[in-house]
Every structure is written in C-alpha cells, then in structure tokens.
UniProtKB/TrEMBL annotation:
<keyword id="KW-0472">Membrane</keyword>
<keyword id="KW-0732">Signal</keyword>
<dbReference type="Pfam" id="PF07980">
    <property type="entry name" value="SusD_RagB"/>
</dbReference>
<dbReference type="InterPro" id="IPR011990">
    <property type="entry name" value="TPR-like_helical_dom_sf"/>
</dbReference>
<dbReference type="GO" id="GO:0009279">
    <property type="term" value="C:cell outer membrane"/>
</dbReference>
<dbReference type="InterPro" id="IPR033985">
    <property type="entry name" value="SusD-like_N"/>
</dbReference>
<protein>
    <submittedName>
        <fullName>RagB/SusD family nutrient uptake outer membrane protein</fullName>
    </submittedName>
</protein>
<dbReference type="InterPro" id="IPR012944">
    <property type="entry name" value="SusD_RagB_dom"/>
</dbReference>
<dbReference type="Pfam" id="PF14322">
    <property type="entry name" value="SusD-like_3"/>
</dbReference>
<comment type="similarity">
    <text>Belongs to the SusD family.</text>
</comment>
<feature type="domain" description="RagB/SusD">
    <location>
        <begin position="348"/>
        <end position="511"/>
    </location>
</feature>
<feature type="domain" description="SusD-like N-terminal">
    <location>
        <begin position="68"/>
        <end position="218"/>
    </location>
</feature>
<keyword id="KW-0998">Cell outer membrane</keyword>
Amino acid sequence: MKKYKYIFLLIGLSIVGCSDLEEEPIGLLAPEGFFQSTGDIQTAVNGAYGHMLHRNFMSREMSMSLMLRSDMVNLNKNVTNAERVQFNDIKLLADNANIAVYCPKCYQIIGAANQAIAGSELVSADVAVKNKIIAQAYFARAFVYYHLVRQFGDIPYLDKPVTDIQAASTMSKTPAAQVYLNIIEDLKFAKEWLPNTQTTRAIPAKSAASGYLAEVYLTIGEFQKSYDEAKDIISKESTYNLGLEADFQNLFDATKSAASKEPLFLLDFNGQSDGDQARNYQAAFTGIRNDAQYGYGGGWSVEVPALAVYTTWDSRDYRKAFSLDATAVFKGVTVDYTQFTNTSIGGYAAGDNSPHIAKFTRKAGPAAEGNGRTTKSDYIMMRYAEVLLIAAEALNEITPGTTEADGYINRVRARARNTAGVATTFPANVTTGLSKDAFRTLVLEERRLELAFEFKRWYDIARRKLGTTVFSASGLEGAKANFDPARDYLFPLPSNELVRNPNLLPQNPGY
C-alpha cells in the first residue's frame, strides 16, 4: 500500500479555489528553490494525490453528494443536515455546504498538479524521465476536472500555477466543451508517458489514463472513440496486467484488493488518519448504527439504500448478497433489517428498516477509530469490469446487435455467477439480437448493479438524461417531485464564489 508524503503547497503562492479561495501555506518556498531534482517533482505530484484522501473530496463530502443524488441511496429520515437533505430531495441551494468545501479541495488537487508540471521545467533532467513523472500530474488534473465539469458544466479552468491572485480572482468560466477537450489532452499525455503497470493501483498506469479516456468519450457521445479506447485496453489485458477478480467480494476485501488485477485506479486508505486527512468515512456513513458484527461499533446509518434496491434485485445475483447487509448484530442478537428501527441501543435507533451498503464495511478490516473511520478500504475509482461495460455500451451505439457487445456483458455476468467459488446459473447470458434501445437499457442496468454504490450512478443518470424516469413514481425511491430536467442535471455554482467573482456569472440555469 502506498502512503503518500503530503505537501499542502509549500511552493509559491497560496492555493486558489474556484475563484480566489486562499489557504494559508504551511511554509513558503519559491519554486526555484524547491524544484532541484526529479524527486522534487515526484514529491509535488504526491501532494496532488495526497489531497484526494481528504474528507472534503471522495472520502466524505463529494461521495456523499453523489450517493444521495442517485436513485439508489436515500438519506436516513432522522438526518436533518441541510446540505444532505438538499442533495437527497433534489432541492439544492447555491450555498450548499458540501459543495462549498469540496469545490476548493478539487482546486487544491489541481493546483498541486499544476505546480508539479510547471516545476518540472526548472529541473535539468532528460525530458522523457520528467514526462514519466508529470504524466501522473496530468492524470490527476484530468481526473478532478472530469468530476467538476460533470457536476457544474462551465467552470474556471486553471492549467498553470497561480502567480497573480488578483488576476485569478477575476477569471471567467471555461465552456464545458473546452474543459472536456482539455481533459482529453491531459489523458492522452498521461497515456503516452505512464508505464504499462505500477507497483500499486493508487498510482495511475497507462490503463487508467486509457480507461478514463474511454469514459470521457462515452460521456460526451463520441462513441467510436470510446469503443476504440476501451477495445485497446481489452486487447492489452495481459500487457496492462488486468483481469476480472474471480470472486466479486475480493474487490472489497482490504486484505486482497491491493493484489487484484481488476482496479485501474483507486484511492488507497491505509488505516492511518491525520485528522481529516486520509480518514475513510464510507464505513461510518454507510454502516448500520450500533451494528456489532464488524467490530467497530457500527456506522451512522446516513446513506441508506432505498428498500426497492433490495427488493427488486434478484436474490440469485451474488452481487446483491455482497453489496448489501440485510441483517445486523445488536447485543449478540442477529436482527433482520425489518426490525432495525425497533432496535435501540443507548437511545439511538439502529437505522432505517432497509438493508445497508456492505461494500465499505463487510471486509474492510479493523479500525483504530470508532465507526470504521480508519478502515483500510480502497475506493476503486475505475475497474476492468467497467471497461468491458463501456466497450459494450459504446459499440451498441455504433453497431447494434453484435455478439461482441453481448460478450462483454456476458463476461461480467459470468463472474457474477461465481458465488464465492460455487458456480450458479444466474445471471444468464444476454439474449442475442437486442435492439439498440433495449441493449442500452440493459447495459445501464448492468452498470447499476455491478457498480452499485461506487459513486457512478448519478453520473450515468445525468449523462443519459434518465431523471424523469428514475425519479418518477415508478423509480426506486418513488417520486421526487422537485426534479427539474431543465435544472437538475447540473449542480449550482457556489454562491460565495459568485459574490467574490461576478465574472463567474451567470449561475447555472434554475438556481
């Protein structure tokens, strides 16, 4: 497991957020004094990846927003925090507290990547040697901008270190289409220079850059390019040391996931915590309150799957059994989910009467802090099963009804039939010859189940404009009357940023 050495911009000026958010630097050291060797470039790169483990990024605030905005995860009815209620009920306000903290964290990651790229110009070394290092920075920058552009649309785009705070505080937004082009260029550079494999999947290799290229192309409707990129990865499965994990549950087993061939890129929480830096919150937010079965006092029952997620998921699918916990242990007694709210320990009810998410709790290992906040879970940001599904979805848009596209889904389903080493017959292979529309529906449903609770579902809803269907009365969470397709596929830009910098106006439509 890789533990990054963090630098929270020791270099140059303070970090700039969405416009002019400033953070007091730990120390001041001019880039000319810091960047002396390729090792210094790597240290700056590590700073970017270190920021990804902070609670304000995927560990807590952003992941919570993505989970609650989907059609699979509800907010526990007893939770009243406004920023969470707004995401869950699709009633976002521009001063939402989650957005207010993770937006600047995104730009801290981008800022560190920009410092590494610019700082490399100050180091006398072979260009190829430097490019292999800064390719990691290009990937980090693309990875974060890809999250931001899907959430907010037009956004400020910074590709150089901020040396003029006044100029940065008056910058305008970059159109989303251009942001996507910039992301693609960064990923192409990363793919060219990254090695075929790395010592850990927490450091991107060629496959990670290529995988995100395939997904970006899919998101913007460039289906031929998406398919070509995904197909290229599949053809290099051995070269990139990729494959499907034989047993689905091993992907979420902290003792086994690091050795798996399936992840292309992951965030590695190693069980250590420095306050909110590197602390893993998913076990706490998704775990069953007061549940004793995993040894860390249970979670907080905040992000709770809609009951229909459980009841509509065929119980013959092994992925269901591992993705969800339908029982808990209270005071030594095993209790069914239908009795969770009737079970009180210390005055606190266990949680909603619904199975809870198990991917971040069941095999996350011991935790030094209560509620699992220092478990060693890996947050898999992309894995090989998704590459196969991207290839299937993109190919269907180009040439519907191919056995090749069927085969990619069949491979994912074949793994789902391996129930802890016991072969089963469900889920069955795809029915051949489906129409384009029928296959599209099928592959999106396969993504929903295969990638359940892995922070993907909201992005699928947004890119395929599924909101009017999934948030209707027939949806998993029932009708969400507040959903407005003219407004709600984007989040509002942070109101404090618009006050500080009117050049970022107009606000996203409807907010």
